[in-house]
Structure formats: structure tokens, C-alpha cells
Amino acid sequence: MRRTPLSPQMTIALPVLGAASILIAWQYLLPLIGVPAYIVPTPTAIFGVFQRSFALLIDNLRPTLIEALAGFIIGNLAAVLLAVLFVHSRILQAAYFPVVLFFNTIPILALSPIIILIFGIGMTPKIVIAAVICFFPTLVNMIRGLDSASDNEHELFRVLSATRSEIFWGLRLPRALPMLFSSLRIASATAVIGAIVGEWIGSDKGLGALIIQATFNYQSDRLYAAIVLSSSLSIALFCIVVLIERRVIRY
Amino acid sequence: MLDAIEARQLDVGYGGRHAAVKVLAGLDLTVAAGSFLSILGPSGCGKSTLLRVVADLLDPLGGSISVLGATPHAVRSRRDVGFVFQDSTLLPWRTVRDNVRLPLGVGQRSLTRKIEDRSTELLELMDLGSFGERLPHQLSGGQRQRVAIARALLGEPKLLLMDEPFGALDEITRDRLNDELLALWRRTGTTILFVTHSIAEAAYLGERVIVLAANPGRVVKDLDMRPFKQEGNRCKREDAAIAAAMADLRTALERAS
Lengths: 251, 257
Known about the structure:
Chain A folds into two domains: 11-40; 45-248, MetI-like (MetI-like fold), CATH 1.10.3720.10. In chain A, 82% of the residues lie in helices and 0% in strands. Chain A contains ten helices and no strands. Chain A has helices at 8-32, 43-52, 54-88, 90-105, 108-119, 124-146, 151-159, 164-201, 207-216, 220-248. In chain A, helix 2 crosses helix 10, helix 3 (54-88) packs parallel to helix 6 and helix 3 packs across helix 9. The longest helix of chain A is centred in the C-terminal third of the chain and has 38 residues, at 164-201. Chain B has a domain at 3-80 and 157-256: P-loop containing nucleotide triphosphate hydrolases (Rossmann fold, 3-Layer(aba) Sandwich). Helices cover 33% and strands 24% of the residues of chain B. Chain B has nine helices and nine strands. In chain B, the strands form two sheets. Chain B has a six-stranded mixed β-sheet, with helices on both faces. A three-stranded antiparallel β-sheet of chain B has the order 2-1-4, with helices on one face.
């Protein structure tokens, strides 16, 4: 059975109402059924942290933002460049893609201590972890994207005596962009995860460090505020990617 | 008059010279310059393969082929050949005009013949004058195929290869594009090789129709259509003479399948 589509007003109103109903239940229902505030603080208590400790939150947001952003850029750039190399050299791809595949099977949590051993405790290891976590999905998507032009499209370019670089810029790359952007959207969230994981393992700054400290000190309202901030950071990065995507891909 | 294509004992296949699966075997074909040749045949008979050899997209395993008196490679490098695929193969990120202008942007450095931007003239010719700034997905199937033809004509090719270009269109659109193509052919004098599944289309368009059989591909029928038509390859679709020719072609095609 076909469902009638929602009106534009309802498409906006319903998620807002849904979120509001959850927040209200959280605020009034959870205390009522006896969930203690040190486990789940109320939304107003979390909002209170934003008012009281705004400077502290922003101070910890800044390093995480820089690490996630730098990791996002470096990881994706490396993935795109390696994908370009791989699609132009089947030999390199056959030799090294399995190695990359193997590296991807190592859990990032297991890899992170090694990265911190190598790069110390500054921002660098967090950037590297964020980059590593972005790298693989983009590599795979970019290789598939660069190879996604149809046989006819390749033949069209051959009939026109196109050079390899013309085929790359005129056909392979534009064909790959939709797939690249879909992995960039995923990477916008995973880069933040990478930065936070890095901060868990060895840092006294950043949202990850704040989460660990707040947990050990039973400051659950601060813990929840840090979580809200991390998720807002992911959403912001995601929105930036989507905005760029809309400008670049118009068809 | 010079021959546009001369193929002798042409063998084409896949999988290398020795372990090859032959798609075309010992094919002999001569096509006069400026003529309109329709190629009919069952699936897998090598119709498309033949076009790909002529366009230098595929090397033959044996035999010889000369295109416009030269090798297929030389002809492609001179950009004397245009190719139209079954799906229009328009690049979705380029506007209609930029799709038509694609030949200007690629291959120019390696070419021996420079081509001019005739996109405006061609868009007018193909009745797409007001669609230049649209994107391909905003066009109908017939319009997209017109854009593909305009793109193939940009370099003023002496030879136009068409691989079931109207196969995916509805019948009314297809008939209209058939007439437009014939008008274009009369005007430009381009040699056209037109692959199709449709007996009616082959008979209506071609001055000559060849039927290929499969396994391996070879010419089993070579029908001169000019006796069935009026001056200038003109005919009516419902002509009795054309119907007789079509029956003849159908018999050949049934035997070939």
C-alpha cells in the first residue's frame, strides 16, 4: 500500500515534536521512576553545565575540533591519493590493497596505544588516529568511484583520443565524486570518534579527556554535556560536508 | 568513388590471438563512401564488435581493414569518426552544450586536425536550441539521443558509427529521429553505419542492409535497398516494395538466428 507523503510543515514539525517528547519524558519521567541524577542527569541540569562551565567546555572543544578536522583532511586526502595511484596501477593495487585491508582489520582501539607510543602525547597522535579511522572507507569508496564509469563512457573518450589525464579529470573523477562525498559524510562523524578515542588514551585536554575525567569524578552532568558537544561537533562537520556536496554535485 | 570501409577476411575475437573466441570470422565488407549501411543481426552476431573495430576501439586478430583509405587508428586520430551509443552516454555533470562540446576539451593535443566549436549550430540543427544550459537528466530519451548525435557530429566526421542509437526509444520518437537522421545524412554526405535490431528501421534507413549471423559472425545477406526506394534513399514506411524487402530480410534474419 502506498502511503501518502507528509506535508512539508509536518516533515519539519514531526521530528521536532518527537525530540521534544523524549526530552520532556527524560526531564520529568526518569526522576519520577527513581533513576538517580548521578546516572542520568535531567536535560535542564545538562543545560546548566553549558551556562556555568561554558569556558571549560569551549577550551576542551577546541583541541578536539582541530584534531578531528586535521585528521579528516589528512586521512581523506591520503585515501584519495592512494586510490588514484591504485586505479592507475593494477600491479600496485594487487600488491598493496590486501596489506591495507589487513591494517583495516586491526581495531582502532588496539592501534591507538601504538600510535601514541610513536607520536607522544601531543595533538599529533590524535590527528593520526582520526586520519586512520577516516582513511579506509574513503579509500574503498574512491577506488570504486574512480572505476565506476561505464564501458561506453570509456569508449567515448577513446574515440575522442583522450589522454589518460583527460580521462581522469573529465570522466573518472567526476564519476567518483558522489561516492567520495558519501564516504566524507561518514568520515565527518568517525573523525570526531578518532580524536576522542585518542584523547581517552592519553590526554588532559579535549572532549575525550573531559569525558574520562567527568566519569571518574562522578560529574555526570558534565559528562553528558561533553557528549552533547561531541555529537554537535560531528553534526557540524557533517553539515559542512553536505553543504559543499550540494555546491559541487548539482545533477 | 573511394570506399569508406574495406574489410578483407577480418577475424575479431576476445582472449588473445590463440585462445580466442571468434566474434567475427573471415568477414568481407566494402562500404562505399557517403552511403548509408544498416547492419542487422541476432544478439551476439558481432554487429557492435564490427563498429568497434572500425572505430579503433578493438584490434582485429587477423585479416585487414582500411577505413577511409587509412588504418582505423589514423582515422580516429584525425577525428574522422563519430560514435553514437545505444544509451546516449551523456556526462550527467555537464550541461547539454558542454556535452556537445566534449570533443573540444579532450584529445585535442594528440590530434592532427583541430576542430571548431559548432555547438550552437548543431544544437539548432538538432532542435535543441533552447536546451543548451539544461542538464541531461532534464531531457527526454529522444532529446538525449539528439544531444549524443550532435556531439558525434561536432568534429564533422566523415564516418558516423551508430550502435542501436534509437533502441531504447518509443516508436513515435524513433520514427521522427529516423527522418531527422536521413535528412542529416543527405545534407552532410557522411557515411553512416547503423546497427539495429529492427528490420523496419534497417530497411527504412539503409541504402543497403547486411544481415550478420552469429557463431561466428559473418555476412549472410547483403541487400541493396535502392531498387525498392525512390531517388535519394526516399521511401514510405508502408510501401509494398519496402514490405517485400522487409520480408526478405526477415527470412534471412530467422535463418541467421
